[in-house]
Amino acid sequence: MLWSALLIPILLLAGIAVFYREIRRVEDPAGRFEYQALDKAARSSRISVRPDTAAPSPLPPTSISLKLIEVPKPELASQFLRTWRFAGPNICGALREAGIEMSEWKAASMRNRSYECYFQRIHERDEVRPLSSTFVRVRGNERGDIVEIRAKIVGPQTDAQGRLAPAVLRIFEIIVKQACWRDFEDALASIQSLRNVEYEQFGAYLSFTREAGSENSFNFILGLKATSSSQVRTKAYFSADSWLATTKPRIPQTLSSSTASSRPQPPLALNDGVSSGHNSRSIWNCG
């Protein structure tokens, strides 16, 4: 009986203690959550301090190739597109050496950006118009790039077979042969016989035709004419007008040293039947 009397108060006290503990837990949920958050933060900080041996190594430094920013070299254009193999002043000088009194390469006028050299001689005329004359003009820009070459002959001298006199034919021979477009040289036979010929191939064209309404006047044109979309894109890529004139770009030493020996390559490999070679300005060497 004594032990039973002692056990009842002990159990009563234990029950009261458990009851008060549950009441405190319900009344203070924020503290419990704060304690859990602090405990998680402490554990995460301990984890982050430990070195992670499986972490990936940093990426190597990348370099930007100068091919993306360097202006293309014009001397490479002849490997991908038909180009003039000589400058305007050169062809003017070559014609003068052949006895054709071409003018010097200069601006067409004070307000004109075009440059040209020309030759004109009137052999015979009446009160209205020339009856026999020869006119040649090479037109281009200040850099010497040729746009086109034109000529006109009126009342040309011919031999007994109706062929053009050698002195006048010599003008067309110099222009066509020294352009180094060998597929155009076949047109010289038609020019010598005063027959119409129009030839367009690989971005260039030649025309020698009798003037409409005149049986004794002939017009000659030789120039570049990019026709296909690939030729147009390649011409635009190598054109100096497509690139802004800027100062030398600031490139880190590590980039310039690693790419100093690189050479720019054009994005379109267009051969178009044109033989590769150096874009020499000397008209006496077709390469």
Order of SSEs, N→C?
HHHEEEEHHEEEHH
Strand order of the largest sheet: 1-2-3-4-7-6-5
Give the terminus-to-terminus CA distance. Answer: 130 Å
Query: In oligomeric terms, what are we looking at?
Result: single chain
Helix content: 25-40%
Instruction: Say how many strands there are.
Output: 7
Unreliable stretches (pLDDT < 50, length at least 5) are 249-284
Proportion of residues in extended strands: 15-25%
Can you offer a commentary on this structure?
The protein is an alpha+beta fold and 287 residues long. The protein starts with a helix and ends in a 28-residue tail after the last helix. The protein has 7 helices and 7 strands. The protein has a 7-stranded antiparallel β-sheet with strand order 1-2-3-4-7-6-5.
